[in-house]
Task: inverse folding
């Protein structure tokens, strides 16, 4: 008997099919005693090693974009400016169906104050110019820093808090007052320095 025929007859005796799979039905439901090719059953969707179960077991992503988080804007008119998150809209709104947040930032940073400056000049140099706008998550770079300034009353009306120009101006003035007050206390000096890039 030739080599191929001998191998195939040996396989038939051992209960191995033409493609090396075990013929369990022909063996009466019992596993053969030999250690030949074994056909393994596919895991069920609830089995821990199945892809469907792996998708179900993935942990939820931590929400780290929270009010008070310091960010840097990457796009638009105020690109490269520091800002702080006021409100977060994770699921988006009807007008903006994507994740975005309301930020208040510095359009103009305070100037360096020296000892010989008069009180009037010091007050002028300590002024900041603010902006407040809705920004897509992809257009901000979050930092590890937080700014504990209370902006709750800046935009307390929900997503349409900046719908009119009057509301936006009022919110911007409130944010400016909060940031100037924080600058004068001498805390969070890193936030009030211009980025050099």
Result:
């Amino acid at each position: 008997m030739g080599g191929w025929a001998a191998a195939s007859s040996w396989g038939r005796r051992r209960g191995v099919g033409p493609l090396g799979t075990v013929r369990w039905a022909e063996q009466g439901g019992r596993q053969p005693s030999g250690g030949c090719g074994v056909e393994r059953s596919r895991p069920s969707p609830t089995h821990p090693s199945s892809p469907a179960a792996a998708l179900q077991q993935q942990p939820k992503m931590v929400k780290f974009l929270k009010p008070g988080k310091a960010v840097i804007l990457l796009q638009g008119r105020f690109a490269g400016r520091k800002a702080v998150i006021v409100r977060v809209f994770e699921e988006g709104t009807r007008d903006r169906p994507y994740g975005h947040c309301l930020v208040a930032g510095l359009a103009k940073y305070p100037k360096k104050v020296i000892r010989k400056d008069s009180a009037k000049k010091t007050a002028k140099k300590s002024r900041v110019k603010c902006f407040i706008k809705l920004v897509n998550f992809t257009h901000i770079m979050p930092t590890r820093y937080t700014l504990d300034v209370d902006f709750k009353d800046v935009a307390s009306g929900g997503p349409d808090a900046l719908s009119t120009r009057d509301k936006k101006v009022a919110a911007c003035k409130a944010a400016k007052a909060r940031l100037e007050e924080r600058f004068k206390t001498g805390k969070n000096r890193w936030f009030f320095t211009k980025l050099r890039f």
